[in-house]
Write a structure and sequence with these properties.
By secondary structure, this protein is mainly beta. The chain is 8% helix and 32% strand. A six-stranded mixed β-sheet has the order 3-15-11-10-9-8, with no helix packed on it. The chain has a four-stranded antiparallel β-sheet with strand order 12-13-14-16, with no helix packed on it. A hairpin with a 3-residue loop joins strand 10 and strand 11.
C-alpha cells in the first residue's frame, strides 16, 4: 500500500483509496470527505503557503504582461483531413418546429422560419460568441457525447474538439480545434472587438483535464474538418480543474 499521497491527491477517510485533494465525496465509496475549510487548510499546507503573498509568488508565472490578443506567433496550425476517430461520427437528429419536421446531419444546421437549429453531436457543455463587427459572426461550442457524464472535481482526458461555427444567413460548421482535454467546461472570448482578417479573436478555454488553453482561432478560407492549433499559453495547477473562467 502506498503510504504517501501523490501531489494534488489524498486518501479517502473510509475506503483509503487515493482521490483528488479537493473532492468532497469519494468517487469509489461515496463517503463524505472534508469540509471546504479543511480542504483549503490541507491544500495550503501541501503548498507550504502561509500568506497570500506566498501564494502569489508561487503562481506569478501564471500571469503575463503581454496581451495574448496581440501576440504574434509563427503559424503552428496543422490541418487534418478528418476528425480523430473517437469524435468523427455523430447521429442524425430529427427536429420539429411549428409543425415542420427536418432531419439534421452531424455538424450540420437547418433553418426554419425564424430560427436555425445546429446538430453539434452531443450535450452542450459550453459555448461562447466571438466579438466581431463583421456581417459573419462566430460561435464556439463544446459538447460531450450523449449519455456521457462529467463529475465535478474529476480530471478527464481524451480527444475532444471545440467546434467553430460561422453564423451568417445560416450556421455553417467551419472547423474543430482538436484537444486532449475531453471537453471545454467553460469558454470565453477576449471581450474586445476584433477586425483582423486572419483570426477570429482570442479564446480562453477551461478543459476537463485541468488545463486552461488560450487560442487564436483562425478564419478558415474554406470549411474543413479539424485543425490542431497550438495554444498561445497553457495554464495549470496540478490536481485542480477549473470549471469557469473570465477575462
Amino acid at each position: 500500500k502506498q503510504s504517501k499521497a501523490l501531489p494534488g491527491k489524498r486518501f479517502c477517510k473510509q475506503c483509503e483509496q487515493m482521490i483528488p485533494i479537493h473532492s468532497r465525496v469519494c468517487q469509489f465509496c461515496n463517503a463524505p470527505q472534508y469540509t471546504i475549510q479543511q480542504i483549503a487548510k490541507e491544500y495550503k499546507k501541501r503548498l507550504k503557503a502561509i500568506t497570500d503573498d506566498d501564494v502569489l509568488d508561487k503562481y506569478k508565472n501564471l500571469f503575463t504582461k503581454d496581451n495574448p490578443f496581440i501576440t504574434e506567433l509563427k503559424d503552428q496550425t496543422m490541418y487534418f483531413e478528418d476528425l480523430p476517430k473517437e469524435i468523427a461520427s455523430g447521429n442524425e437528429i430529427e427536429v420539429q418546429v411549428s409543425g415542420i419536421t427536418k432531419h439534421i446531419g452531424y455538424l450540420e444546421a437547418e433553418k426554419f422560419d425564424k430560427i436555425s437549429v445546429i446538430n453539434a453531436g452531443g450535450d452542450t457543455v459550453s459555448l461562447a460568441w466571438a466579438f466581431r463587427n463583421d456581417d459573419a459572426q462566430y460561435l464556439a461550442i463544446s459538447v460531450l457525447p450523449y449519455r456521457e457524464k462529467l463529475y465535478y472535481g474529476h480530471v478527464y482526458q481524451g480527444y475532444g474538439i471545440i467546434q467553430i461555427w460561422e453564423i451568417a444567413e445560416s450556421p455553417t460548421f467551419s472547423y474543430g480545434i482538436v484537444h486532449y482535454g475531453k471537453a471545454a467546461l467553460d469558454m470565453k472570448w477576449l471581450p474586445a472587438y476584433n477586425t483582423a482578417s486572419d483570426i477570429i479573436g482570442t479564446l480562453a478555454v477551461a478543459l476537463a483535464n485541468g488545463e486552461i488553453h488560450i487560442y487564436n482561432p483562425i478564419i478558415a478560407n474554406s470549411p474543413t474538418k479539424a485543425l490542431n492549433i497550438a495554444p498561445i499559453e497553457i495554464f495549470s495547477i496540478p490536481g485542480l480543474v477549473f470549471s469557469c473562467i473570465v477575462w
